[in-house]
Every structure is written in structure tokens, then in C-alpha cells.
Specification:
It is a single chain. With about 150 residues, the chain is of the alpha/beta class. It has one domain: Roll (CBS-domain). Helix content is about 40%, strand content about 20%. The strands form 2 sheets. Strands 1-7-6-5 form a 4-stranded mixed sheet. Strands 2-3-4 form a 3-stranded mixed sheet.
Length: about 150
């Protein structure tokens, strides 16, 4: 995908142009029940997990299912920090979409937290890149569709 962005001239576009700004955050000590409610209320699938003012990780709806529910953990006492992904790949808003596509490909990830000076500024998903690159693709159409609550 990075090469396609570069060939089409989109590789120089900046992440800031398409990222979701002001990502939702949750404290690492919050329960995963609180996180699930935040995701529901915000109609989102991922939260940036913060610990003492710093980014600790990323918590997705899938993390809650696979690392907590499937393991029989209590949703009221299991904290977000206990199950979030901590091996985060972050980028800055001024980096290019081609760089982001390459990072996603190389690290087999679907979302990147966009940070500036240690603070979360946004989120970029593989769906965002799909909408930008090929709005007619199945992934782009699914990513742009209204949720099916």
C-alpha cells in the first residue's frame, strides 16, 4: 500500500489530513466494563489507555473479547491496563500516509496512535487509509458505513 500511495502522489500527504482527531482516552485503572461503555457511547472500537499522563497502550473491542471475556475475567475488576496492547506503534501528525501504510504492513497492525510531544492527538486506521486510497473498495465502503447497532 505504501508503494501505491507513492506512485499515485498520495505518499506525501500527511497523516493529519485524514486521521481521526482527538481520540478517546481512558485511564489504565478503569475497568473494561467502563471501557466497553465508552466504546458503545462513542461508537468507536478503540481507546488510548493513559497512565499518569502518558500513553500506556491501546485497548480495542477485540482485546476485551479475546483477553478478558474469553478468559472468564471479571469485567468490573479487570482494568484496561491489564489487557491493553502495550507494544504500540505511534507516529506524528506530520508524517506521511505512505509511512503509515508501511508501518501498518510491516507490523501487521490495524491502528496507529498519532501523538505529539507524548500526547495522543489522533488515531489512524487501516480503514482510513482504504477510504483515502480507494473509496470504492470493499474495505473503504465498510469503514465508511454507518454502524449496524
Amino acid at each position: 500500500m505504501a508503494q501505491r500511495f507513492e506512485r499515485d502522489g498520495g505518499g506525501n500527504r500527511k497523516i493529519n489530513e485524514i486521521m481521526t482527531h482527538d481520540p478517546r482516552m481512558i485511564d489504565a485503572r478503569s475497568s473494561i466494563m467502563d471501557a466497553a461503555r465508552e466504546m458503545r457511547d462513542g461508537d468507536i472500537g478503540a481507546l488510548v489507555v493513559m497512565k499518569e499522563g502518558s500513553i500506556q497502550g491501546l485497548l480495542t473491542d477485540r482485546d476485551i473479547v479475546v483477553r478478558a471475556l474469553a478468559e472468564g475475567r471479571d469485567t468490573g475488576s479487570t482494568s484496561c491496563g491489564d489487557i491493553c496492547s502495550t507494544n504500540l506503534q505511534t507516529m506524528t501528525p506530520d508524517q506521511t500516509l505512505a509511512d503509515a501504510a508501511g508501518m501498518m504492513r510491516d507490523n501487521n497492525i490495524r491502528r496507529i496512535v498519532i501523538e505529539q510531544d507524548g500526547r495522543p492527538m489522533g488515531m489512524l486506521s487501516i480503514g482510513d487509509l482504504a477510504v483515502e486510497r480507494d473509496p470504492e473498495s470493499a474495505l473503504a465502503e465498510i469503514s465508511a458505513a454507518s454502524p449496524n447497532n
